[in-house]
């Protein structure tokens, strides 16, 4: 049997995600935490050329990061590579009852705050919901360290909050599957939902697919991804001990992550295209007070440059004067907003002009029985608390829809 080894660090949600994938499949692994261990950090960089974690090996073969692991798991190839098949272990497809189309009352697409809130409410309504997590269990909160503004949760680590979301939903009867929806057909009822591993029919579907970090889309960004370009400070900050970093963006996420990076970096330059920040006052005050943070105003990153191996500079342009400069830098952390994860529903569900799903006051979409909640429809508030509230509302609406469908009475009627 082959051995799986995973390099991680503290406060790395993507490392936690990789470990959860392995644990949910009963796969044993050796964890090598590089936090506070510069020799091990240098070793991983030498072995892979990468400056991010997690990095995963099967025996001596580097298989990549958590995304690569998720893909291997979802395609059933992970067990094959580990030579686990045939030794009594089951692929997830087998665990999920093979090829038969499974019929459910409610399918919740998305394992973020909105999805789990919908799970709590639909399971308490005895609808035995199925929640399909996608590749980011916990959603966007898995990209951050602390959750400071969710009422009732003060100074809570995001990773604990995510575990709580899942445990609470499961306790009431939500079935959580680590899988990815690849196709839907809402033109028939029950609605059709296909994942990497299975096909389903559902009386009601709640879409909670949230949003993903927006890329800068400049030359060098893709080439140096994981080699100095990052979208997660808590995961990758440790690789930049005493180095100079750029954070791109002017919102809460940019400042929060920038402040976190000052634990490691010698200097953090926040590059913002305007002369004012969008971030909340409290975040602005914290950033302005931090000696290691400097601001480069009215400026955009035009190109990320490197030596072939890793980032060594960024081409900056002042938007007022058009003046350009090559800024020597070791890493670029990008927090420039989000795009809704709605591609899957294009042509079926009504979108607004920014590709967010349009919902009514009951979280209903243009298709009766299909509801949406969270950042997938909300481009104004985009908070965990508002996503959770919308998830609960969508669940109550789904419960009512199914009760009416089955000619049953509905609580409150
Ligand atoms: C760095 C950072 C820090 C933040 N800090 C805070 C904070 O302190 N407080 C706060 O209130 N908010 C914070 N937010 C915002 C908050 O995280 C979001 O508003 C919230 O996560 C939205 O929840 P959601 O469930 O709508 O979507 P998401 O959290 O985006 O979750 C979407 C889910 O859908 C799944 N998915 C996507 N596509 C598919 C598919 N095809 N099949 C199955 N599943 C799929 C994903 O895997 C994921 O599980 C922060 C955001 C970021 C990026």
Describe this entry's structure for a reader.
The chain has 413 residues and is of the alpha/beta class. It has three domains: 4-95, Glutaredoxin (3-Layer(aba) Sandwich); 101-212 and 339-405, 3-Layer(bba) Sandwich (FAD/NAD(P)-binding domain), CATH 3.50.50.60; 229-334, FAD/NAD(P)-binding domain, CATH 3.50.50. The chain has eleven helices and 23 strands. The chain has helices at residues 13-24, 38-48, 66-74, 77-81, 92-95, 113-124, 158-172, 233-236, 252-261, 281-289, 384-405; strands at 4-8, 30-33, 55-58, 61-64, 102-109, 130-132, 146-147, 156-157, 175-177, 181-185, 191-195, 199-207, 211-213, 229-230, 244-248, 267-271, 293-296, 299-306, 311-318, 324-328, 331-334, 338-340, 370-372. The strands form six sheets. Strands 5, 6, 9, 10, 11, 12 and 23 form a seven-stranded mixed beta sheet that branches. Helix 10 (281-289) links the parallel strand 16 (267-271) and strand 17. Helix 1 runs parallel beside helix 3, helix 6 runs parallel beside helix 7 and helix 6 (113-124) packs parallel to helix 11. The chain is globular, with a radius of gyration of 22 Å. The termini are far apart. Residues 87-97 have low confidence and may be disordered. The structure holds flavin-adenine dinucleotide. Flavin-adenine dinucleotide (FAD) binds next to helix 6 and helix 11.
């Amino acid at each position: 049997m082959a051995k799986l080894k995973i390099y991680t660090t503290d406060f790395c949600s993507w490392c936690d995600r990789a470990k959860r994938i392995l644990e949910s499949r009963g796969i044993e692994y050796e964890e090598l935490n590089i936090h506070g261990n510069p020799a091990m950090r240098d070793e991983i960089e030498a072995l892979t050329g990468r400056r991010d974690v997690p990095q995963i090996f099967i025996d001596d073969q580097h298989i990549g990061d958590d995304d690569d692991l998720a893909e291997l798991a979802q395609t059933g190839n992970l067990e094959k590579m580990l030579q686990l098949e045939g030794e009594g272990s089951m692929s997830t497809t087998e665990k999920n009852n093979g090829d038969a189309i499974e019929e459910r009352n409610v399918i919740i697409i998305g394992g973020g705050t909105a999805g789990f809130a919908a799970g709590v409410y639909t399971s308490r309504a005895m609808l035995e919901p199925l929640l399909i997590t996608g590749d980011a269990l916990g959603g966007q909160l898995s990209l951050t360290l602390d959750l400071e503004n969710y009422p009732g949760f003060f100074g809570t680590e995001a990773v604990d909050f995510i575990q709580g979301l899942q445990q609470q939903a499961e306790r009431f009867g939500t079935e959580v599957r680590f899988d990815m929806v690849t196709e839907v057909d809402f033109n028939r009822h029950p609605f059709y939902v296909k994942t990497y591993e299975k096909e389903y029919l559902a009386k009601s579907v709640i879409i909670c697919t949230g949003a993903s970090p927006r890329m800068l889309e400049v030359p060098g960004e893709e080439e140096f991804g994981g080699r100095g370009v990052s979208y997660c400070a808590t995961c990758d900050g440790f690789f930049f001990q005493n180095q100079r970093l750029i954070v791109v963006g002017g919102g809460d996420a940019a400042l929060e992550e920038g402040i976190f990076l000052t634990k490691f970096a010698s200097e953090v330059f926040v590059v913002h295209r305007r002369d004012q920040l969008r971030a909340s006052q409290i975040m602005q005050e914290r950033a302005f007070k931090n000696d290691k943070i400097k601001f480069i105003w009215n400026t955009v990153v035009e190109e990320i440059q490197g030596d072939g191996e890793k980032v060594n500079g960024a081409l900056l342009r002042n938007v007022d004067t058009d003046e350009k400069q090559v800024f020597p830098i070791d890493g670029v952390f990008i927090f420039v907003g989000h795009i809704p994860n709605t591609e899957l529903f294009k042509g079926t569900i009504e979108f607004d002009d920014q590709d967010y799903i349009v919902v009514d006051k009951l979280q209903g979409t243009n298709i009766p029985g299909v509801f949406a909640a969270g950042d997938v429809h909300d481009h104004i508030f985009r908070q965990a608390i508002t996503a959770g509230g919308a998830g609960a509302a969508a669940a109550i609406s789904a419960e009512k829809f199914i009760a009416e469908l089955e000619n049953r009475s509905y609580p409150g009627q």
